[in-house]
Design a protein that fits this description.
The chain has about 300 residues and is of the alpha/beta class. The chain has twelve helices and eight strands. α1 links the parallel β1 and β2. α3 packs parallel to α4, α6 packs parallel to α7 and α11 packs across α12. The longest helix has 17 residues.
């Protein structure tokens, strides 16, 4: 198992103007990331619009990404669901197509207890026997997996890390204190606190903003790891307006709109996500111009 860390992109799923998965653009995005120094790729996360992909499309996207990456960086396949049985089939699929790990969201909507969460992940670990990164994003799921539960789960060899998207450095610290595993990958789920996350012992980020500035996010983590805190901090401050712009509206509306403006994809979304408002589009455009990402 390659170690997981650095700037890992939660890659968007490009659609054609007719709304189908755009395989050609997806493969081009993978190459863009690898040539820009991205350290890993997550297909079918929240940013990849996993919630509106059919099961067939979900599998297709993962298969395409694994095929295009060809082992050059780790692929952590989005594989969660609020049904444990469905999660298991997705984790097994990730294993079958030779992804490196699965990113498994806490079961949303049904609000399991901490014991239910523990049993969910333990079952997946036992039945699939495949490396898993827990994904905690209470703002989207309505459930928060607590540090003590992550600590219990980290004793399973298959549980190799957590994407912690509570936006809290305190929480990141509590998770590390609860986990007794040297190589456990604590990954930030929020772009705007990557630097402080690394300072308390995080290994990297699963990033939205890396979709448009992969080299900057990779440089931030590389600088930190090389001991150049001054440069890492500079990039942390520099990226803030762009990180904020990615959340002017629900993710991935702004990031797909930005990639559309940059000419990298057709900025098609699936309902219930819709086109960005004209006002926010204008704000986004100004930020992108400030970064030299678009010129008109």
């Amino acid at each position: 198992m390659t170690s997981i860390g650095g700037s890992i992109v939660a890659i968007v799923t490009p659609f054609t103007s007719q709304g189908a998965v755009d395989e050609e653009r997806l493969r081009e995005l993978v190459e863009f990331h690898i040539s820009s120094g991205t350290h890993g790729i997550v297909p079918c996360g929240t940013t990849g619009e996993s919630a509106t992909l059919s099961h067939e499309e979900h599998r297709e996207v993962i298969r395409i990404v694994v095929d295009q990456v060809k082992g050059r960086v780790p692929v952590i396949a989005g594989a969660g669901s609020n049904s444990t049985a469905e999660s298991l089939s997705l984790v097994k699929f990730a294993k079958e197509v030779k992804a490196d790990a699965a990113l498994v969201i806490t079961p949303y909507y049904n609000k399991p207890t901490q014991e239910g969460l523990f049993l969910h992940y333990s079952y997946l670990a036992k039945e699939a026997d495949f490396p898993m990164v827990i994904y905690n994003v209470p703002g989207r799921t309505g459930v928060d997996i607590l540090p003590s539960t992550i600590g219990r789960l980290s004793k399973l060899p298959q549980v190799i890390g957590v994407k912690e998207a509570t936006g809290s450095v305190r929480r990141a610290t509590e998770v590390l204190l609860a986990v007794d595993k040297e190589d456990f990958a604590l990954l930030s789920g929020d772009d705007f606190i990557v630097y402080p996350f690394l300072c308390v012992g995080g290994k990297g980020v699963i990033s939205v903003v890396a979709n448009i500035v992969p080299q900057l996010m990779a440089e931030l983590v590389n600088s930190f790891n090389a001991g150049d805190h001054k440069r890492a901090r500079e990039l942390h401050h520099k990226l803030l307006p762009l990180c904020e712009a990615m959340f002017y509206e629900t993710n991935p509306i702004p990031v797909k709109t930005a990639l559309g403006m940059m000419g990298r994809i057709e900025p098609s979304l699936r309902l219930p996500l819709c086109e960005m408002s004209a006002k926010n589009r204008e704000r986004l455009s100004e930020v992108l111009k400030g970064f030299g990402l678009i010129h008109h």
